[in-house]
Every structure is written in structure tokens, then in C-alpha cells.
Amino acid sequence: MKPISFYLITDTHYFEPSLGAEGKAYEEYMKGEQFFLKESSAIIKSTFERISEDKETDLVIIPGDLSKNGEKESHKSFVKELNKLKENGKKVFVITAAHDYNEWSNGYKNDERIQVEGTTNEELYEMYYDFGYAQALSTDKQTLSYVAEVSEKTRMLAFNCDSTDDTKGVIDDRMLAWAKEQIEKAKEDGCYMFAICHYPIIPSVPVFDLVGDAKVKQWRKVASFLADNGVELVLTGHMHIQSINEFYSEKGNRLIDICTSCLVGSPAKYRKISINEDAVMKVESIDVEDFGWDMNGLRVKEYFDKQFAMAIVHKVNRALSGGKGAAKFLKGFGRKVLNSMSVGTLSHLLFIRVDKSLRKRKLTDLVSEVGLSIFAGDQPYTENTAFYNALIKVLKRFSFVINKVQPKLSKDGVKIDLNEMLINTVGNNKGFSDNNAEFKLKN
After folding, report:
1. Those residues with Cβ within 8 angstroms of residue 187's Cβ, 6 or more apart along the chain or in another chain
2. Residue 439 pLDDT > 80, yes or no?
3. How far apart are CA 443 and CA 191, in angstroms?
């Protein structure tokens, strides 16, 4: 096959600074937000400048959520940055997603959240015409999915399955029929084909199989379709996570899903992917570097992680709020446990023993650490680590609950093993890295 090299960036969530990112309403909003608003413009400009310095790789791919939340001015500013990439010799291909259209977009000024001009879904085709649609060999007008030859003898099948109705996240039979025609045409023309999609095709971590909006609908059907039709690679985003996963269809064909983190929020990475003439794919993850911001003495990674850690605890606390009667009482008790107890104290309450390295740790700190590790990929809590052993004991303690819940979670003839799902979510047991890996592809 013809060698190819490209940069993969996802979930840029560009926010135009002039729309306002200050005041009490902004600060309250940011307590629960994984990624940065105020800093996003500087992060993206700095990253694009670094990519422009690479004169050997001329292809950049961005699978959706280009703006913060559909602000018209954010799109205008982001398109300017894309044009700078083009001026520096880069070919840029994008798709849009749900955060790119919104008629009720917001900015933050004078301690208040203010409404700013948004963008309709229909406007996105013209806005981003020069970054995929202009080069398209075929466009599915209903979904604005397209196929383009992104490099010599290499084509990209771009699935756009974000819509304003209940088909969001759906790649239906009509869309698959169109895709099959494009795949067969690529084969006839002697072209290698890979796919992009904003939604992960394969759940990024096992527990995300239980989250409806964490992957495409009927993902096993879509994954099998791609694998069985010779598309072995798909590039995705949406979940703001670093993950690489393999799926094998019933016919034994493989699909590799490379999901990449949000650029402007922890773990703040993008990727450089190269495939050589022997069909060996090398995946390299690159950290966002210094972007000229005053980070109060923190290093770049610390700055990103601090924001995300705060957001994790905030979201858990919100989930443990509200309700009525017994539910309100139990949520309140759970919130108190989370915010006031150490791991050692909780282990005593559950009548389990944990490693001494965990006992004095605050639950909030441990929850943040585990959450950060899941999204960063290469989760360290594998067999015989202190946290792994503690998790096994907790799962045994609550086995009676798990045994009742599991049958209700099993759908479409697929049985759920909740224990294995949780264990393989906190620990990477796949045998390869979520960040830097090599795979031998089919020619």
C-alpha cells in the first residue's frame, strides 16, 4: 500500500474569547467542566503552529465537535485557524458533530451567562465546505457524510451521524448501503480505505457499553459491517478519552477503533499516525505543550488535570444530590461518605482490608485519580495492584446487588459480566497501549 502519515485531532471545542469567559456564572460553570473555554483559543493556535512546523506530514483530520457549543463567532474564528493550516501546506478534513450546531449558544460576561448567536445544522456544510466536502468523491446529502481521497490511493469514509432528531448516533441501513457502495468503489480503484466517525464505534472502555451516548447505536452491527467489508481502521472522538480497541466480527475480521482525547481538556493529547508500505501502522500520542498561558506555577499536565479532577468530584456530587424520601437520604449519605471519609474508614465500614498505601487517602482524591487514569488511557490498576485488589473485595461485598442488576443490563442477546467490565475499565488488560502502539494491517 501507499505510505500515509497524518495528524488526528478531536474535540477541539474552540471558543471565541471575545464572547466572554469571566465572572461568577463562568466560574460556577467551570466547576463541572472537563475542558477549558478561556484557554481553548490559545491551546488550538499553539498546537496548529506546532503541526505546521512538520513539513513531512501534510494531512490533518478532525472528527467533530469543532466548537464549544455552536457559537457562530467560534466557528468563524476556528475556520480562520484551519485556513492557516492550509496556507502552511496542510490538507485538512473535518466532520461536524452535536456541539457544532446550537441556536442557544452562550458566553459569560458581567457575572452572567449571556446568549450569543448560534449556528444551525444546515449552515455547517457551507462553513466547512473547503475542509472535506469540496474534495468529496461522494456525499450522502441526508447526513453530510462523505468520501474523499485524502492521500494517493487512500480514501477516507467520513460518517456524520450527529443529527438534530432521534437518529443521533445512528448509522442506519440506508447509510450502510451508501457506505458499501463507496467501499466497493475504493476496492475497484485499488485504494485503501479507513473511516472516521465522531462517535466511537467500539466502546472506549467496557463500562461505556452501558452508556447510551458513548458509542454509535447498535455498535456491534456497525463494527461487523466495517470489518467484514474490509475497513479495518476507524478514527473517533466524542468521549474525550485516549483508547485503542479491537473488535472481531463473527467471521473473524478485525476493526481497530482509535479514540482520541479532547484537545483542550485533560488528558489534552493528539495523535500522529503513520502507515508504511508494509501496512504497519504506528500510533504516537502527543501532549499539548506550553501554550503561553499563566498557569500559576503549574506544569501543563498539572494545569489540565487539576481542572478535570475538580470536574469529576463536582459531577459525582451533583449525581448524589436531589431526589425524595429514601433516595434523597441515600444520596446524601453517599455524598457525605465521598467528601469526608478516607479509604481506610470506608473499608472498615465494608469489613474489608485494603493495602496500607490506600488507607489514608481521601475518597475524593482516589475517585479523581481513577477518573483521570481512565481518560488518559493505559489504566494502571491491573492485577495485584493495591486498587485492583481493593476493587475485587468491594465487588465481592456487593455481589448480591451485582447478580440482581446484571440480567437487566444484558441486551440484544449479549450477556453483561459487570465484574469483568469494571475490572477492565480501570486496568488496561488488552496487551497494547492506548497511547503509543503498532499494528500490522491488511494490505
Report:
1. 193, 230
2. yes
3. 10
Query: Percent helix, strand, coil in the chain (nearest 5)?
Result: 40, 20, 35
Residue 286's pLDDT is 98
Mean pLDDT along residues 105-131: 96
Provide the β-strand partners of residue 427: 380
123-150 residue pLDDT tens: 999 999 999 999 999 999 889 999 999 9
Nearest Cα to Cα of residue 160 among 199, 103, 102, 191:
199
Q: Indicate the class that CATH gives domain 4-290+435-440.
A: alpha beta
Whether 387 and 393 have beta carbons less than 8 Å apart is answered as: no
> C-alpha angle with apex 88: 238 to 438, nearest 5 degrees?
50
**Is residue 442 within 8 Å of residue 283, measured between CB atoms?**
no
Range 133-142 contact pairs with CB under 8 angstroms and sequence separation of 24 or more: 135/91, 135/93, 137/182, 137/185, 138/178, 138/181, 138/182, 138/185, 140/175, 140/178, 142/174, 142/175
pTM of the shown model: 0.96
> In the chain, which segments carry CATH 3.60.21.10?
4-290+435-440
